[in-house]
Amino acid sequence: MGPQRVTLQEAAGLIQNGDFVTFSGFTIWRRPMALVYEMIRQGKKDLHLFEVNGGTHTEVLAGAGSVKIWESCWVGHELYGKLGESIAAGQINKTIIVEDYSHAQVVARLLAGAYGLPFLPTACAMGTDILNPEYDMLKKAGLRDGSNPKIPIQKYTVAADPFFGKGDILLMPAANPDWALIYASMVGDDGTIRMNAQTYTDAEAIKAADKVIVVAEEIVPASYLRNEPKLNLASGYEIDYLVEQPWAAHPTGSQGYYDTDGAFIKKFYSASKTKEGYDQWAEEWIFGVNDHQEYLEKLGVTKLESLRANTALGYSTRVKRGTR
Predict the structure, then answer these.
(1) Residue 93 Cα distances to 38, 60, 237, 279, angstroms
(2) pTM of the shown model
(3) Cys staple from 194: which of 75, 186, 300, 320, with CB 3.0 to 4.6 Å?
(4) Per-residue pLDDT averaged across 300-320, rounded?
């Protein structure tokens, strides 16, 4: 059986306060923003985010007060805003527990989860201060006591190589989120997923998570995707719930469909530097509209068409790229 078709509101309603969540995409590309907005409208709280890297979606959730724990290596908006202001404010104010890793260590944890292993050996970032026990923030918060099955009792451990005697190796515990929230370019009517560009760690997020919600730009006949199966990322058997929602990644981009809305993200980044600024932004763009359709209507056809990708080139020819 394929995934269950649900609305955006129903999909957000499945996620409970305190759930452990990961996402598709990379920084400002292919983030399930429409679902993130709806989660905030529904007042989701105390979320535990695990990400290979954070991005605009992270900052929107953190600014809304929806995040309790954030485990990752970086957050920001690339050239549209280098810093994650909301995560930083939460860390400073002690409203968000921030657990830091190197990029490759986060990937190792997700890979272990995807492979069904309890941990993955790696040498990544050994010898760095990331492994300083002083920075084990979940332990400091008393959360590595075994009461939460999603939080390992150790951040990492080191073991001697038992096979070749090559010294110590780092063991990173698996991450198995409750939910993977995925934005997909195309989904077949049987649930088969295809991305139109780099797949990042989307496949691993899908395999590692207990349940998967996919928000699709468009649903196409499964027969179309079967013509080139090597381009497909995951089967419908791996997906639990499916939402069809055009422009669901805005303001992040969807390769082949539309560009990242840099101007929109820059304005959000500026607003997110203060709580008052964030709240005003959220009142306009999250709470000031009832759903994603009204959000798109507020953006307007002219804005959306300026971002729409040229079919042949895969990117918009209307967006100003800058000059030297």
Answers:
(1) 26, 17, 42, 17
(2) 0.96
(3) 186
(4) 94
